[in-house]
Amino acid sequence: MQTNQLSYLPILIQFILAVGFVVGTVIISGKLGPKRHSAVKDENFECGIESVGNARIPFSVKYFLVAILFVLFDVEVIFLYPWAINFKELGMEGMVKMVIFMLLLLIGFFYIVKKKALEWE
């Protein structure tokens, strides 16, 4: 099957339309939208509580470590779903590969438990 540059024209047109729509919407809403500024409207407000203090407080690295570990193990667990769906078609080879995958997952989990990455102080 031969392709030429003309066959990519619909993709280019769709890309130009999508970018044009986004840019046009942002520009038009900026021009037509209300512009009422006041001290009360410009004040920071979140969840019904007035802001107090500096927003630049340092977070513990532990918070980010737990978040990254959650994402890592969550993404790895996502690989179990297609395996479970195609369990019979994969046969013994698929079973061996999944056992290796689960062993690596457990080794990683025991490693972070041993390093006490999930314990809060």
Structure description:
The radius of gyration is 26 Å and the shape is flat. The chain is mainly alpha-helical and 121 residues long. The model has no long low-confidence stretch (mean pLDDT 85). The protein has helices at residues 9-32, 61-78, 80-85, 87-114; strands at 45-46, 49-50.
Topology:
Elements: H1 9-32, E1 45-46, E2 49-50, H2 61-78, H3 80-85, H4 87-114
Antiparallel strand pairs: 1-2
What best-fitting shape do the alpha-carbon axes yield? flat
Assembly state (oligomeric): single chain
Helix count from the secondary structure assignment:
4
The helix/strand class is: mainly alpha
**Major sheet summary line:** 2 strands, antiparallel
Order of helices and strands: HEEHHH
Number of strands: 2
The radius of gyration computed from the alpha-carbon positions, rounded to a whole number of angstroms, is 26 Å
Separation of termini? 62 Å
Lateral strand order in the biggest sheet = 1-2
**How much β-strand is present in the residues?**
under 5%
Let me know the average pLDDT: 85
The parts where pLDDT drops under 50 for at least 5 residues are: none
Short account of what is shown:
The protein has 121 residues and is mainly alpha-helical.
Could you name the key traits of this structure?
two-stranded antiparallel sheet, 121 residues, 63% helix, mainly alpha
